[in-house]
Amino acid sequence: MVKSMSEFILGIDVGSISTNLVLLDKNKEIKYSSYIRTGGNPIRAVKIGLKQVNEKFPEIKINGVGTTGSARNLIGTIVGADLIKNEITAHATASSFFSPDIRTILEIGGQDSKLIILRNGVVVDFAMNSVCAAGTGSFLDSQSSRLKIPVEKFGEFALKSKEDVNIAGRCTVFAESDMIHKQQVGHSNDDIIYGLCNSLVRNYLNNLGRGKELIEPIMFQGGVSENKGMIKAFEKTLGCKLIVPKHNKVMGAIGIALLVANNLPEKTKFRGFSLSDKNILTKSFNCDGCPNKCEVIEAYIENELLSRWNDRCGKWQISKQQEN
């Protein structure tokens, strides 16, 4: 247990598959991290994360909070974030912090993937894929169900492969048909799984890497970077070793926390860990004030309107900050 009133910065990365929380101390050292399944309910996932932090560190002071990820605006509004930034900036910040000379970042999560190009620590180009499952971790998840092998064990099987098996992977439907064919002609699961890894690598590079110069050092992060078969497939295709950071699954949360640490607010807007025990609800309505017909989003805590946003003109926007 930490000492009474230790001071931390909280970084929250809320994605479609996972919600990650990180605590940084005043020396920018990682003192805590968590990886929680979002399960289609980012508010619930964040409440679980906050409760876990509060239970582990009951006597701490939060000096700043940042949010990133696909639900960054929603969660940032609810928790009282001091900074809300996109995933590209957050991942680039964390990667450069651990490896200042990094020049290429490969990031593959459950539902989306990113490619970030840095030169001298500055993002000069990037690409994202959030449409096609064949370029993300869900591609492997769907095929693991087909093979009845836990996706966590895919790396072990892939590393035992002795024969190259080409799996058509531009679409998960085609991949499954090709897998069935490969099994029927007698290929081993080891070879089929490594073939799947190679297929995902091809899709990733064709979709995101086309026209981009991927220069070493190259860092691989995101949930899929846990798969040793994927590391092997990338290294074989790119012809170089990849850097897989220690905190590869929570780099977004680390990055947003670092950004907050670099510009600490005089007084944080954080609403406190008590949020984990409160009833939080979001609603929306369409404004008929102009042809834009904006979908205005509302957030309530214990039935009290907390914030309203997402209208272009600002007519409906309000934000109530907690007094502390």
Structure, described:
The chain has 324 residues and is of the alpha/beta class. The protein folds into 3 domains: 6-89 and 254-274, Nucleotidyltransferase, domain 5 (2-Layer Sandwich); 100-244, ATPase, nucleotide binding domain (Nucleotidyltransferase, domain 5, 2-Layer Sandwich), CATH 3.30.420.40; 282-319, no CATH class. The chain has 9 helices and 14 strands. The protein has helices at residues 42-56, 72-79, 87-98, 137-147, 154-159, 172-184, 189-208, 228-238, 251-261; strands at residues 6-14, 18-24, 30-37, 60-68, 83-84, 104-108, 113-119, 122-129, 218-221, 242-243, 280-286, 295-301, 304-309, 318-319. The strands form 3 sheets. Strands 3-2-1-4-5 form a 5-stranded mixed β-sheet, with helices on both faces. A 5-stranded mixed β-sheet has the order 8-7-6-9-10, sandwiched between helices. Strand 12 (295-301) and strand 13 (304-309) form a beta hairpin. The protein is globular and about 65 Å long.
